[in-house]
Design a protein that fits this description.
six-stranded mixed sheet; alpha+beta; Immunoglobulin-like; 16% helix
């Protein structure tokens, strides 16, 4: 009997050892938690390409689409996100695979105030098929095209992105964005007591910057005529520093939203008196911006870098009692520009 009990004890010890050995082998064959996770790469969008060099992406963008292309520039995936999530400064777009050796292109805008049209790509489409056309167009009876208002539009492109580890350890790619839309404010200031009325003036900007390629360059397109989305008049009380005398000055203001301004383009701002049919002035206003930069040494950047950094331009023109432009000088973004050359 004792021998039988001993055999049973030996058998139990043998089976326990066998199960323990099998258990250790099974654990070794299961990948650890890190290797079993689905690979993720975060994309962080930034908009620091502005005059303040402060990241304003989360303040100005509420919708973004990311296009992912392979090494042959063929689209393989695209992701879109919009709404409150983008207002979080810590927002990241989570992509469920490795993005190294890919090309990334992003278009972003503000929801609710945008009529921009971005070409929808199918899997297998080439990168060059991706274009963006700014919207708000109206075709007039004479065949010309007017653009009344467009919302903010942003573009970003990264080739063979550099992946770095974030504080949380997630591989992260930074996507810098460029703003492709601009605000132009045109003020007509009367130097006499004669009143100015907003309805007495037509304001237009003509440019051919309505169609953008995948790399944010401009493509040949129909010439656009921009018209103001806002036009108003107001009276401003001015006080002389020397005599302390006050003067009531009448100002007419028109505000545009324009597409991307290019240093090698020739957009023209024209103001016409509707009552007389007379052109008050018609100027290549980007050349005036270049003149302002040269006179006031604004920044250490090229003309195009300045146009891409700045997104708001304020022009003030002074008119005499007959409504003629006093073309000795103008104000641009608070700087007085002396016009001593023929532009």
């Amino acid at each position: 009997m004792e021998q039988l009990l001993q055999h049973i004890k030996d058998y139990v010890r043998f089976m326990a050892l066998a199960f323990l050995t099998l258990g250790i082998g099974a654990c070794d064959s299961i990948p650890d938690n890190e290797s079993s996770k689905e690979e993720v790469c975060d994309v962080q969008f930034t908009y620091k390409y502005n005059m303040e060099s402060v990241d304003a992406f989360h303040n100005q963008v509420s919708a973004v689409t990311l296009y992912i292309f392979d090494a042959d520039s063929t689209v393989v995936h695209q992701w879109s996100e919009s709404g409150e999530a983008l207002a979080d400064p810590d927002y990241r777009m989570h992509i469920p695979f490795d993005l190294t050796n890919h090309h990334l292109i992003a278009w972003a805008h503000t929801e609710g105030c945008n009529t921009t049209q971005i070409v929808q790509l199918n899997t297998g489409s080439h990168m060059k098929d991706l274009t963006c056309r700014i919207g708000g167009r109206t075709v007039k009876p004479d065949g010309s095209t007017e653009v009344c208002e467009i919302g903010p539009v942003f573009h970003g492109k990264v080739d063979n992105p550099i992946v770095v580890k974030s504080n949380s350890g997630v591989p992260t790619i930074t996507m810098p964005m460029t703003k492709n839309t601009n605000t132009l404010v045109v003020n007509l200031s009367n130097t006499s007591t004669n009143p100015l009325r907003a309805d007495n003036f037509n304001f237009t900007v003509i440019d051919d910057n309505g169609l953008m390629a995948y790399d944010n360059t401009l493509l040949p397109d129909t010439e656009l005529t921009y018209v103001p989305h806002t036009k108003c008049e107001e009276s401003v009380v001015l006080t002389s520093v020397e005599s302390r005398a006050t003067k009531l000055q009448n100002v007419v203001t028109a505000e545009f939203t324009l597409g991307r301004l290019m240093a090698n383009n020739n957009p023209r701002l024209t103001v016409t008196n509707r009552t007389t049919g007379k052109v008050v002035f018609s100027i290549p206003f980007v050349d005036y911006l270049k003149l302002m930069m040269s006179q006031h040494a604004i920044g250490n950047m090229s003309d195009q870098e300045y146009l891409d950094h700045e997104d708001s331009y304020n022009f003030t023109f002074f008119l005499d009692e007959d409504g003629n432009w006093l073309d000795a000088s103008i104000l641009i973004n608070g700087w007085r520009v002396v016009l001593d050359i023929d532009l």
